[in-house]
Design a protein that fits this description.
The complex is a heterodimer of chains A (about 190) and B (about 575). Chain A has about 190 residues and is of the alpha/beta class. Helices cover about 40% and strands about 25% of the residues of chain A. In chain B, about 35% of the residues lie in helices and about 15% in strands. Chain B is built from 19 helices and 21 strands. The chains are: A alpha/beta (about 190), B alpha/beta (about 575).
């Protein structure tokens, strides 16, 4: 059975590294893997989406509405934006961080309140993590991606050691210790 | 070894294994990472060329010189490179030559959605289209075999979802090939009419030979599942159909998308009751099927615009659709924005305030068209800002010239802005051209270019002296400004617009994301002094937001550029 994980966030938050760690971990477990990335214009502070799919045999590299087992969101508004991609019975793992998009900055729109509560009212399983605080605790706000991978990893299953090996392969050695700590904090969140 | 490669990285691996020696490219999403990955193999000479035409001609020359050569570009880059491609098709190759082009259905990062398959037919060269990273590597290697076997350049076509998707690749060893002998042969390599006429005959004959090859090559595969419905597809679309329909239909997967087989398609169609052609963008395969008398359903069902997906395919072929949940909340859009500390921001703010016509170009600064700056009037293609301003000014005369500028980045200027500036000087329009020199090719992810002083490996290289260049081609007024200094930018802008001769303003400050750029400490808003006038919000900085009637600056994002500080009437930012 194939699994589909959609990783969403704001350009610059490090969603690419998160998808790389997940893809690497799954390849190591002998799954067929496809990871679809976003480069270029939309990386400049816009909504960014990467898709990770794994299983016995994966054809399409993309995930469509109603198909994701997990939506891993780096920001609340992005969790809400991409909620329609979640399949029935799927899980939203989201950072509680809030980053105003330009229409909110300029005052043209309000940042909607109570998004996570509304998801739960609709019967969606939501795991909300204060990933920014945990990342700061690990040593850098940039480790948000690894905190969230840690939080999701526990729900996806697999051995913690295998996940940590994937983290080790994907992050620069000088930041390894910090990222290991970030993973632990996410895992235990 | 098993690797999880991007399609682009797999192409680079294919280059390595195929013994390729020379790679030249201009960065362009979604093709950039091919060259970035290729340069990591020390056996391959790699370079960033000033533009795609130069890159392609470099590959042509290397091929004539006996090496397996390669060039890469995005779809619009192939427009720039079309000139050498069409004639190289006549000349053929010595060492194998492959041109990779990456199309962008859905326009994730492009100004149009053109379908490069049309170029293969127009230039009469074979085109391969892989459907995952493993095929990216294999097809790249095969493309060199084809190139040398059929004496032709070969195009490798990717789309965003192939170029930017990772899947598993089994790596192999490099086949080191000796440089082929170069023998002087003007009848092959000099395309004078007398030599080109027989060459055209050869090209037409070559296409016929390639059609025969297309009938039997393993690049084109039939998957007979004993179904009544058949689908003809290639590349990412084949994967979408497989995902949506599984083994419930028969497939003709085309790896060679030009030239297309005849009998293979006719036989496949004869084995099915209904045949669909699923292809993104143009009706390229469909038109061929209809021309050879095969009845297919194509664009009557599938869209011509945008990307496909398994969901779209399933819905169109079966009417089925997965259900999904959404919230009632009004979710504001999150368009891409200029980064915190982006040196382009100050210039666009000044242009907006001066209410000038802005002839735009391709790069990060195209984001100057978005709210709240909205300081761009037109954007066509690489380099067009400068020449289109010249045309605008010729059309509107002195009144136009006093209220119009062009903006162009350093890399885009080197790509194709220089010849446009020559036109301004030579055919004299009193145009004001602003070169946004952020010392890097920004949008595609920080590639060096001929203005930065470094080559693709980061080694010191010759750098264009922009001021001297402008003067050398006949522009006497050249001013350099710091875009963080809003007052100076505005003063110079007014002065140059008033001048009675062409001028260039170089707005110089490195991209804020470059590693060597030292950032000032984050600024803070004094909440007692802030009157909530929102002046600072007008620059569209993602670090500034408005909470409970006051501006606040996110210390994690602010890089202390100080542009907002200049705008605060109450000196509340410091």
């Amino acid at each position: 059975m194939n699994k589909s994980v959609m990783i969403v966030g704001v350009g610059g938050q490090g969603t690419l590294l998160a998808s790389r760690i997940l893809g690497d971990a799954m390849m190591d477990q002998n799954y067929d893997v496809k990871v679809s990335e976003v480069h270029g214009m939309s990386q400049r502070g816009g909504s960014v989406v990467t898709y990770v799919r794994y299983g016995d045999k994966v054809y399409s590299p993309v995930i469509e509405t109603g198909e994701a087992d997990v939506v891993l969101a780096f920001e609340q508004l992005e969790a809400a934006r991409f909620l329609p991609y979640l399949k029935e019975g799927g899980v939203v793992v989201t950072s509680t961080q809030r980053i105003d998009p330009m229409p909110v900055v300029t005052g043209a729109k309000e940042y909607p309140q109570g998004l996570l509560a509304e998801m739960e009212e609709k019967g969606v399983k939501v795991l909300a993590v204060d990933a920014l605080s945990l990342a700061e605790q690990a040593g850098s706000p940039k480790a948000v991606n690894v905190v969230l991978i840690g939080a999701m990893a526990k729900r996806l299953g697999g051995k913690k050691e295998d996940w940590l090996k994937a983290v080790e392969r994907c992050v620069p050695p000088k930041f390894l210790e910090m990222n290991q700590k970030a993973f632990e904090l996410g895992w235990n969140a | 070894m098993k690797e999880l490669y991007l399609g682009n990285e797999a192409v680079a691996r294919g280059l390595y294994e195929a013994g390729v020696r020379v790679v030249s490219a201009y960065p362009g999403t979604p093709s950039t990472e091919i060259t970035e990955a290729a340069v990591k193999y020390p056996e391959i000479y790699c370079e960033w060329a000033p533009n795609e035409k130069v890159a392609t001609e470099t590959a042509c020359g290397a091929s004539i010189g006996g090496a397996r050569s390669f060039c890469a570009m995005k779809h619009v880059g192939l427009n720039v490179a079309a000139d050498p491609l069409f004639t190289m098709s006549y000349i053929g190759v010595n060492g194998g030559m492959v041109l990779a082009v990456a199309d962008d259905p859905g326009m994730h990062s492009s100004q149009n959605e053109q379908d490069s398959r049309n170029y293969a037919r127009a230039a009469k060269v074979p085109m391969l289209e892989p459907a995952d990273s493993a095929e990216c590597k294999e097809f790249t290697k095969l493309a060199y075999e084809l190139s040398e076997q059929f004496d032709t350049p070969v195009i490798l076509r990717l789309t965003t979802r192939i170029a930017h998707s990772r899947s598993i690749v089994e790596t192999g060893e490099r086949k080191e090939l000796p440089l082929k002998e170069y023998k002087k042969d003007p009848s092959k390599n000099v395309m004078l009419p007398a030599f080109a006429k027989p060459k055209h005959e050869k090209v037409e004959a070559r296409t016929q030979t390639l059609i025969a090859y297309a009938e039997t090559t393993s690049l084109n595969k039939v998957e007979d599942n004993g179904a009544k419905v058949g689908v003809i597809a290639s590349g990412a679309v084949y994967q979408y159909v497989k995902e949506a329909m599984g083994d419930s239909v028969n497939y003709l997967k085309l790896g060679l998308v030009y030239p297309l087989p005849v009998k293979l398609i006719q036989d496949f169609a004869a084995s099915c009751e209904t045949v669909y052609v699923a292809e993104e963008l143009d009706d390229f395969v469909e038109t061929h099927c209809k021309a050879i008398g095969v009845k297919v359903i194509g664009k009557d069902l599938f869209p011509r615009c945008g990307e496909f997906s398994q969901k779209l395919v399933k819905k169109l072929l079966t009417g089925e659709e997965a259900q999904s949940v959404s919230l009632e909340a009004d979710i504001p859009v999150r368009p891409p924005v200029m980064c915190c500390g982006c040196p382009h921001r100050g210039v666009f703010y000044a242009l907006k305030r001066e209410k000038v016509y802005v002839s735009g170009d391709i790069g990060c600064y195209t984001l100057g068209a978005s709210a709240p700056l909205q300081a761009m009037d037109a954007c066509i293609c690489m380099g067009a800002s400068v020449s289109a301003l010249h045309g605008y000014n010729k059309a509107r005369g002195a009144e136009g010239e006093k209220k119009a500028v062009a903006v162009i980045g350093d890399s885009t200027f080197a790509h194709s802005g220089i010849t446009s500036l020559v036109d301004i000087a030579y055919n004299r329009s009193n145009s004001v051209v602003i070169v946004l020199d952020n010392s890097i090719t920004g949008m595609t992810g920080h590639q060096q270019n001929p203005t930065t002083g470094y080559n693709i490996k980061g080694e010191p290289a010759a750098a264009i002296d922009l001021e001297a260049l402008c003067r050398a081609i006949g522009i006497n007024r050249v001013t350099v400004v710091d875009p963080y200094d809003l007052k100076e930018v505005t003063r110079v802008l007014k002065e140059e617009l008033a001048a009675e001769e062409p001028s260039v303003i170089i707005s110089r400050r490195p991209c804020a994301l470059l590693k060597y750029v030292k950032h000032a400490p984050a600024l803070k808003v004094d909440q007692d002094k802030c009157i909530g006038c929102k002046s600072c919000l007008g620059i569209g900085c993602p670090a500034i937001s408005f909470r409970e009637g006051k501006a606040v600056i996110d210390p994690n994002q602010c890089v202390g550029c100080g542009v907002c500080k200049t705008l605060c009437p109450k000196e509340a930012i410091g």
